[in-house]
């Protein structure tokens, strides 16, 4: 009875904490995290065929089938370093043109703390249910109000401030996924199937881009600086199978999450503020090459092309916010993840991994992606677990080296722009097995 009360209290606490701290800034594989769960993050994000904690539904809901009752909590320190550089304007702009000030500008607000929480309840040796609360995000920038030359409504040069002549400029996207899950083993425990309805909550704000008002269908809802929010829904299904002793495969599909519009940004996002979350799918393998060493590999696809606000080219000849209006021009990305795990004995487990994503941003769209430079490709990871009876302490580290994308300023011919990002992440987690 006491254990049941403790478990119920932990679930209630988890939901409350997650809803109160949805602010995230992950921008690794586009704006999806490179993995979910401290153990998976230490192995490059793999988790389609190997599941080790209550965060498993973030990758493959089948992973909790028969899993022991456990509670996982973690916090990540995430540091994305974002900047852009523009060449000096080479001529006086004409009316309607928009050159950037020459030089390099760094985005502020580089330090973020990101919580994750999950719980699994074992029903019997073949069945478990659980709930995971996980964050995504990453379209986050905060450029200072630099002094520069701007233009008045007649096209005359005037002193101004801010990257886009409207003060401090940037955007912030925060997403929380609430993932209740049921999973069950079949075929004498060799096959596991899991299903998760997904509830999403997201928030967005933008400021400092009011100068784009003449190019917007709804300039009053373009750059208010106010936070707007929406709820959405989707589903995920997955399976895992043991092909032979120590050899496993897995696959998962997550539907497109249909969310409410950002009405306060109906003049920015295509189709009047529409902003759904793209579908993803993937598959993986895991092999115990010795009693102490496990190797795993995953493939994942993120279909940004499903979301007009993200995938429409910034060169679209329509106003911001209109049907078919400009977006960030992001393409679908293919991600390959590799991880190794070594049982070190005496309660120690060691992990290393590599995650190779694709840059979704094209050269033609560099100007608008100053606001969302999610261009990193390579992620190097490491981690460990230390067990103390029913307690676990988990740790993971990630480094994504600098990546750059260059292109022309579509609003001022002949000016070169280069955007760049690199990232660091340290995550520590605690788990209790009941």
Number of strands: 18
The outline comes out as elongated
CATH class identity: Mainly Beta
Which spans of ≥5 residues are poorly predicted at pLDDT below 50?
1-24
How far the N terminus sits from the C terminus, by CA atoms, comes to: 13 Å
CATH homology group: Outer membrane protein transport protein (OMPP1/FadL/TodX)
How many helices in DSSP terms? 4
Q: Which quaternary structure do these chains form?
A: single chain
Helix proportion range: under 10%
- CATH architecture group name: Beta Barrel
Output the helix-strand order: HHEEEEEEEEEEEHEEHEEEEE
Strand residue content: over 45%
Query: How is the main sheet built?
Result: 14 strands, antiparallel, barrel
The CATH topology turns out to be Porin
Structural class: mainly beta
Rounded to the nearest angstrom, the radius of gyration is 23 Å
């Amino acid at each position: 009875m006491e254990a049941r009360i403790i478990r119920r209290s932990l679930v209630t606490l988890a939901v409350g904490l997650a809803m109160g701290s949805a602010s995230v800034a992950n921008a690794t594989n586009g704006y999806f995290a490179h993995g979910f769960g401290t153990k998976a993050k230490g192995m490059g994000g793999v988790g389609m065929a190997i599941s080790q904690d209550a965060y498993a539904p973030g990758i493959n809901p089948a992973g909790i089938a028969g899993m022991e009752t456990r509670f996982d909590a973690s916090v990540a320190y995430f540091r994305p370093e974002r900047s852009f550089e523009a060449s000096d304007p080479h001529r006086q702009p004409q009316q309607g043109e928009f050159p950037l000030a020459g030089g390099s500008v760094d985005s502020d607000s580089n330090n973020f703390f990101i919580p994750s929480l999950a719980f699994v309840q074992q029903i019997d040796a073949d069945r478990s249910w659980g709930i995971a609360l996980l964050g995504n995000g990453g379209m986050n920038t905060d450029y200072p109000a630099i002094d520069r030359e701007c233009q008045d409504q007649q096209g005359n040069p005037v002193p101004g401030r801010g990257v886009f002549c409207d003060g401090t400029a940037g955007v912030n996207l925060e997403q929380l996924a609430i993932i209740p899950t049921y999973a069950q083993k079949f075929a004498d425990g060799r096959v596991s199937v899991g299903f998760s309805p997904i509830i999403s909550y997201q928030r967005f704000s933008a400021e400092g881009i009011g100068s784009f008002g003449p190019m917007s269908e709804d300039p009053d809802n373009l750059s208010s600086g106010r936070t707007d929010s929406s709820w959405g829904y989707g589903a995920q299904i997955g399976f895992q199978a043991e092909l032979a002793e120590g050899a496993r495969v897995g696959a998962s599909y997550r539907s497109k999450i249909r969310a409410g519009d950002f009405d306060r940004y109906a003049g920015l996002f295509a189709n009047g503020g529409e902003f759904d979350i793209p579908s993803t799918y993937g598959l993986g393998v895991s092999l115990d090459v010795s009693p102490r060493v496990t190797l795993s590999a995953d493939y994942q696809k993120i279909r940004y092309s499903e979301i007009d606000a993200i995938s429409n080219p910034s060169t679209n000849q329509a106003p911001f916010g209109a049907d078919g209006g400009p977006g960030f021009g992001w393409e679908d990305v293919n991600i390959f993840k590799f991880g190794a795990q070594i049982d070190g004995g005496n309660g120690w487990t060691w992990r290393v991994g590599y995650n190779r994503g694709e840059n979704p941003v094209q050269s033609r769209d560099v100007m608008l992606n100053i606001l969302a430079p999610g261009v990193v490709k390579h992620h190097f990871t490491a981690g460990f677990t230390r067990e103390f009876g029913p307690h676990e302490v988990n740790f993971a580290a990630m480094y994504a080296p600098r990546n750059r994308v260059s292109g022309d300023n579509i609003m001022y011919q002949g000016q070169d722009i280069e955007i760049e990002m690199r990232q660091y992440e340290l995550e520590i987690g605690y788990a209790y097995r009941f």
